């Protein structure tokens, strides 16, 4: 992509991920000039097209390749956090799974967490506006939006048997988990077109590249936001031609749950005492920046098959998931196991006394209602000083108990009669690990589900960073945040769909503002 390089802009958008591409497109459609800045390059890597090879993107040039600090709750391990550094952002690296979440999530945001206007009934029209759902438009689903959401794609026979295995163990079939209630086992809905990845970059923004109101700078990293007093007036960036400044009437920060707080902190917006400790003079003491970090977590149950070999998925390696409650008294599901048609061994934790099998499948136990919270902090004042990412993984015993329950449930599904033709044999955690001894296994194998949120959360209390109506950063002028970092409590399920919805809502607010 040929970068255009204006020195001034009406609106600068930082990042080119799920929400950012939506915001840029909607502003351009409204006749508003936009300069979008992306630290990565165009999405030319062929692995981006194919959901089945997403693992090849990890540790690549398109991955920020973050790791957490050592996590005491995860056996002291540092957990890899892949994040997209490319046009399309993390929607260029993810599994393309479209999950809105449960009605309860949004009603909780609105009624209990100070985010009035974000109830299920209020966000539902926005989700419908986004979707081009091949299952058909309805009162809950959209059929004319720019983003393809596909349920009718070639299915792996193993995955179809796993649906039956779930039903055999007592889970109900949920034909559309995006209707407001997620409970039960479902066939996944994917953001694909012609079997290939279709993200917001490709759906919203790429079709209007060349519009004179849209300027895109790639391979340009934002070092900090520039202020006059507390008013954002531009950004300092670094690219092939060195460090320079770009002025703007307003700045929209949408770099994700790790990079958005980082840029605010480097710009002097955040907890004042912590900023001074690393040599940054505060512009605005805003204590919630970087805090409230949380994520969904997974722990794998891996099988090889001694019957039929597992066929490769035509479109993806993940086709089925289910939502359930580790405690029947919970108001919404807190677990989301996800099934893969390949063996996925936990990093640095290979199965004891077993060869690593290439043929097999994985049932990932999944935690989607974490109580643990972490923080993003700076380790120094320089732009190349790494950020410290403490996920707080499994520091709350309730999270451990829920994830153990999910792994135990996955093991039961693996023993279901519906899978008899495959003759699965558990490799990991392995037959020598009893259900009552799973806690150590879970702590030693847990990985991210790539759903970090909350580090610039919206709300009305003293720890809130962003106004839930305007997306403005409290205590500043001309500065907005609109991405997964503003989510106050992670929704039940994958976070890409909520991020796209946030982009649409932020765009509407920005179009209407001066």
UniProtKB/TrEMBL annotation:
<dbReference type="Pfam" id="PF05199">
    <property type="entry name" value="GMC_oxred_C"/>
</dbReference>
<dbReference type="InterPro" id="IPR036188">
    <property type="entry name" value="FAD/NAD-bd_sf"/>
</dbReference>
<dbReference type="InterPro" id="IPR012132">
    <property type="entry name" value="GMC_OxRdtase"/>
</dbReference>
<keyword id="KW-0285">Flavoprotein</keyword>
<protein>
    <submittedName>
        <fullName>GMC family oxidoreductase</fullName>
    </submittedName>
</protein>
<dbReference type="InterPro" id="IPR007867">
    <property type="entry name" value="GMC_OxRtase_C"/>
</dbReference>
<keyword id="KW-0274">FAD</keyword>
<dbReference type="Pfam" id="PF00732">
    <property type="entry name" value="GMC_oxred_N"/>
</dbReference>
<comment type="similarity">
    <text>Belongs to the GMC oxidoreductase family.</text>
</comment>
<feature type="domain" description="Glucose-methanol-choline oxidoreductase N-terminal">
    <location>
        <begin position="256"/>
        <end position="270"/>
    </location>
</feature>
<dbReference type="InterPro" id="IPR000172">
    <property type="entry name" value="GMC_OxRdtase_N"/>
</dbReference>
């Amino acid at each position: 992509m040929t970068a255009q390089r204006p020195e001034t802009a009406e609106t600068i958008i930082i990042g080119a991920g799920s929400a950012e591409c939506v915001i840029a497109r909607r502003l351009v459609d409204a006749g508003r000039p936009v300069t979008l800045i992306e630290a990565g390059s165009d999405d030319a890597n062929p692995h981006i097209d194919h959901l089945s090879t997403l693992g090849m993107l990890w540790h690549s040039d398109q991955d920020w390749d973050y790791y957490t600090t050592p996590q005491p709750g995860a056996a002291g391990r540092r957990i890899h956090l892949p994040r997209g550094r490319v046009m399309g952002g993390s929607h260029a690296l993810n599994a393309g799974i479209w999950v809105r979440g449960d009605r309860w999530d949004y009603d909780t945001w609105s009624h209990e967490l100070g985010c009035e206007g974000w109830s299920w009934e209020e966000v539902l029209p926005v989700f419908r506006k986004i979707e081009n759902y091949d299952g058909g438009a309805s009162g809950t689903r959209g059929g004319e939006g720019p983003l393809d959401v596909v349920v009718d794609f070639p299915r792996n026979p193993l995955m179809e048997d796993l649906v039956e295995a779930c039903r055999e163990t007592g889970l109900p079939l949920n034909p559309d988990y995006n209707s407001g209630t997620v409970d039960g086992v479902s066939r996944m809905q994917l953001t694909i077109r012609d079997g290939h990845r279709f993200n917001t970059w490709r759906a919203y923004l790429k079709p209007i590249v060349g519009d004179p109101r849209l300027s895109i700078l790639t391979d340009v990293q934002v070092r900090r936001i520039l202020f006059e007093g507390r008013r954002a007036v531009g950004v300092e960036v670094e690219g092939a031609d060195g460090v320079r400044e770009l002025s703007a009437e307003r700045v929209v920060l949408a770099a994700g749950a790790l990079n958005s707080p980082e840029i605010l902190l480097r710009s002097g917006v955040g907890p004042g005492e912590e900023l001074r400790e690393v040599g940054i003079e505060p512009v605005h003491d805003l204590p919630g920046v970087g805090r409230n970090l949380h994520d969904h977590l997974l722990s794998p149950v891996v099988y090889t098959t001694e019957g039929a070999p597992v066929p490769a998925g035509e479109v993806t390696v993940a086709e089925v998931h289910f939502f359930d409650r580790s405690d029947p008294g919970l108001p919404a599901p807190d677990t989301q196991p996800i099934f893969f048609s390949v063996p996925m061994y936990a990093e640095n934790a290979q199965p004891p006394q077993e060869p690593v099998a290439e043929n097999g499948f994985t049932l990932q136990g999944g935690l989607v209602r974490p109580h643990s919270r972490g923080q993003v902090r700076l380790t120094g004042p320089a732009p190349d000083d790494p950020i410290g990412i403490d996920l707080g993984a499994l520091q709350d015993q309730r999270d451990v108990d829920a994830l153990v329950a999910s792994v135990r449930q996955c093991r039961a599904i693996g023993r279901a009669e519906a899978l008899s033709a495959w003759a699965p044999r558990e490799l990991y955690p392995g037959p020598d690990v009893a259900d009552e001894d799973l806690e150590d296994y879970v702590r030693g194998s847990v990985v991210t589900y790539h759903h970090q949120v909350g580090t610039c959360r919206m709300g009305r209390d003293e720890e809130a960073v962003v106004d839930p109506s305007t997306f403005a950063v409290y205590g500043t002028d001309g500065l907005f945040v609109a991405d997964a970092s503003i989510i106050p409590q992670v929704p039940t399920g994958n976070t890409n769909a909520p991020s796209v919805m946030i982009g649409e809502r932020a765009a509407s607010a920005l179009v209407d503002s001066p």
